[in-house]
Amino acid sequence: MVRELMKQVDIKSNGIRDASVAMYGRTDIMEGYWRLLSDCQYDIEEGLRLLKAACDWHDAVRPKMKALIPKVYRDQPGLFSLRQIGFDGDGKPILYHCFAQDHASPGDWTVDGILTHVVHIVENAGRSSRDKGGEERGMTMKLVIDCSGFVAAPFKSYENLTKLHQTLMLLYPNVIDTIAVVNYGREARIVWSGICDILDDSLQQKVKFCPEKELDENLGPLSYDVLNWLQMEIHANSKATLGPVQRNFWLPTKGSSDHDPRGSKTFVTELIDRKSDSDGFENHPGIMYGS
Question: Whose CB has fewer CB within 10 Å in the chain, the N or C terminal residue?
Answer without folding.
Answer: C
